[in-house]
Amino acid sequence: MKNIYVLFGMFLLATACSPKVAKTTTTNYQEDISTNREDFVQLKAQQEAKQAEQQKENQLTKEQDFSESSAITTGVDEQLQDFAAANAGSYATKYTIQVYSGTSRDRANEIKSEVYELLPEAKPKVTYVQPTYRVRIGEYYSRVDAYGLYKKAKSNFGRAIIIPFKVKLGDQSPAETTQD
């Protein structure tokens, strides 16, 4: 019985390791796919016709009176006025850099002069809200925009800070601002 298992195992091993011969066919396979191909000569002619048509349209629009564009501008202006009227009582947040805050007017003016010397692009303003004088530079709509000038000011003025403040929309003067 043991011999039968050994013989059977050898038979399987011999048949599994024998080389297989792939069958080859000698028939020639051909398929006509010309019906699926695009005719590039015809496509090129269509593209040239489209380009010629577009050039004619472009010339016609150049020659036309552009009164329609002014009508669009008028519509946009009306929408902007409506938007401004709807937001008339709203406030926007702006940011400035405060380099001095104290009770001495002379010191505030000294700091303002130093800012002019050290940071010529900054336009310092001295404000007075009783009993404090403040020297502030720049007005920005985002804290990120203010950060560049803040770094320069901080290196020269150790107490420099970024201050947010509110501006009433529609007002152009900074005198109409309210502090946070």
Brief account:
By secondary structure, the chain is of the alpha+beta class. It contains five helices and five strands. A hairpin with an 8-residue loop joins strand 4 (161-168) and strand 5 (177-179).
What does this structure look like?
Keywords: Signal. It holds the Pfam family SPOR. This protein is α+β, with helices and mostly antiparallel strands and 180 residues long. It has five helices and five strands. The chain has a five-stranded antiparallel beta sheet with strand order 2-3-1-4-5.
Write the layout of secondary structure elements.
Blueprint: H1 2-17, H2 40-63, H3 67-86, E1 91-102, H4 105-118, E2 124-129, E3 132-140, H5 143-156, E4 161-168, E5 177-179
Antiparallel strand pairs: 1-3, 1-4, 2-3, 4-5
Domain SPOR: 89-169
Biased composition (Basic and acidic residues): 50-65
Keywords: Signal
* Form type: elongated
Span from first to last CA? 101 Å
Number of helices: 5
* Average pLDDT: 81
**What is the level 1 CATH name of the domain at 93-179?**
Alpha Beta
Helical coverage, percent range:
40-55%
Task: Write the CATH fold name of the domain at 93-179.
Answer: Alpha-Beta Plaits
